[in-house]
């Protein structure tokens, strides 16, 4: 019972970090806060007893740390292959693969995409993590992904408005 209280506490910390991640318009700041979020989520999922979710969070942390310095399709491919192989190896059911799919989408997004396209990719990854968090009973994680999806949509619209204003101003 005490583990569950601590687990949910870490989930609520992730919730707060996640809100701040997608308010970032600067890609580098977004990745740094996302790294901290992923490390916190790793502890959260370990305390919940969801090993595949913890693996997804660990791989997300490692890929985000790498993506701060490297933007490479080859590195993305390596992380995607590691996620796929280790996720399939550790999963007991098909439902265990939601965090792995979310990690794969997030990995592609963080290494290959930029700006609005990166955030659209994150929407897909967040949807996978939302399903996972509901399945493993993560209250903070579920609230996080619902909020992240909402805030991310708002940020995408804001970035697109800024791009449209630059386009109109250049004419």
Describe this structure as you would to a colleague.
- The protein is mostly helical and 171 residues long.
- The chain has one domain (2-170).
- The protein contains seven helices and no strands.
- Helix 4 runs antiparallel to helix 5 and helix 6 (115-136) packs antiparallel against helix 7 (139-170).
- The mean pLDDT is 89.
| Cα Rg | 16 Å
Structural class: mainly alpha
E-strand count: 0
Output the number of helix runs.
7
User: Number of domains in the coordinates?
Assistant: 1
> Which residue ranges are poorly predicted, with pLDDT under 50 across at least 5 consecutive positions?
none
Main β-sheet, in a few words? none
Instruction: Estimate percent helicity.
Output: over 70%
What order do the SSEs take from the amino end to the carboxyl end, as H and E? HHHHHHH
Strand content: under 5%
Task: Give the overall shape, derived from the CA principal axes.
Answer: globular
Q: How much is the average pLDDT?
A: 89
Distance between the termini: 63 Å
Keywords, please?
single chain; 171 residues; mainly alpha; 7 helices; 0% strand
List the helices and strands and how they pair.
Blueprint: H1 2-21, H2 27-48, H3 51-67, H4 73-90, H5 98-112, H6 115-136, H7 139-170
Short summary:
The chain has 171 residues and is mostly helical. The chain is 85% helix and 0% strand. It starts with a helix and ends with a helix.
């Amino acid at each position: 019972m005490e583990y569950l209280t601590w687990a949910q506490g870490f989930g609520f910390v992730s919730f707060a970090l996640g809100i701040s991640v997608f308010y970032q318009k600067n890609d580098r700041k977004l990745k740094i806060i996302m790294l901290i979020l992923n490390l916190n989520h790793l502890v959260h999922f370990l305390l919940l007893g969801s090993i595949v979710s913890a693996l997804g969070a660990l791989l997300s942390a490692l890929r985000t740390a790498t993506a701060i310095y490297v933007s490479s399709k080859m590195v993305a491919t390596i992380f995607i292959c590691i996620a796929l192989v280790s996720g399939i190896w550790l999963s007991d059911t098909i439902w265990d693969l939601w965090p792995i799919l979310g990690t794969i989408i997030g990995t592609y997004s963080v290494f290959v995409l930029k700006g609005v396209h990166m955030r659209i990719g994150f929407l897909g990854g967040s949807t996978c993590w939302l399903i996972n968090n509901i399945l493993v009973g993560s209250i903070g994680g579920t609230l996080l992904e619902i909020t992240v999806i909402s805030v991310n949509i708002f940020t995408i619209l804001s970035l697109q408005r800024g791009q449209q204003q630059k386009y109109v101003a250049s004419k």
